[in-house]
User: Which sequence fits this backbone?
């Protein structure tokens, strides 16, 4: 689907280009951005779009302001994922920053561009729901297999058994045994309760 509307903002025309590997060239993207009147172009060379930190992109976001228009050669050059892209487009709309993807002809200031934004946002929400469902299913499956969820225990089962033998065999205090195993008395008491529960 191609949208041919030109951006309506009257501010600066700023471009962003990115290639994922060092052997790729930015020339094609930069030439296309210059042809659209971009006088300021930020770029990242040899950096994957999935990287959380991209020097050129980070500078771009700090530079953009209301009334500007951001151009990219392809929409895939911008976001790390559909969720990240949806957040960026939402930010641009809220800040009155026009966004135009040359290959897809998308301009979010126009009605057709806003429709595309809502489609991307819908896919992002769907992705988030799938990830959430898969995470919950994975946690439930792990719990059913008896796997411990959350932070690892400070004492292994063998250490807890030794601590219990030491306390009962030597008639020693909980504090003394806890000190021997370099844990707090509360941690040791919880470990004893957990051991007792698993044995029942």
Assistant:
């Amino acid at each position: 689907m191609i949208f041919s509307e030109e951006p309506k903002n009257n501010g600066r025309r700023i471009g962003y280009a990115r290639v994922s590997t060092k052997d790729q060239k930015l020339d094609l993207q930069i030439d296309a951005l210059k042809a659209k009147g971009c006088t300021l172009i930020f770029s990242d060379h040899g950096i994957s779009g999935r990287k959380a930190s991209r020097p050129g992109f980070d500078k771009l976001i700090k530079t953009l302001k209301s009334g500007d228009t951001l151009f990219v050669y392809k929409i895939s050059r911008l976001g790390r994922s559909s969720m990240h892209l949806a957040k960026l487009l939402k930010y641009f709309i809220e800040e009155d920053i026009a966004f135009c993807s040359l290959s897809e002809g998308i301009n979010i200031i126009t009605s057709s561009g806003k429709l595309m934004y809502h489609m991307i946002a819908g896919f992002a929400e769907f992705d988030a729901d799938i990830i959430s469902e898969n995470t919950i299913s994975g946690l439930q499956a792990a719990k059913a297999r008896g796997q411990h969820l959350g932070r690892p225990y400070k004492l292994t089962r063998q250490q807890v058994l030794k601590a219990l033998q030491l306390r009962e065999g030597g008639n020693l205090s909980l504090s003394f045994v806890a000190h021997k195993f370099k844990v707090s008395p509360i941690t040791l008491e919880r470990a004893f309760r957990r051991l007792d529960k698993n044995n029942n």
Q: What stands out?
A: The radius of gyration is 28 Å. The chain has seven helices and five strands. Helices lie at 27-35, 55-63, 82-94, 111-144, 157-170, 174-180, 185-199.
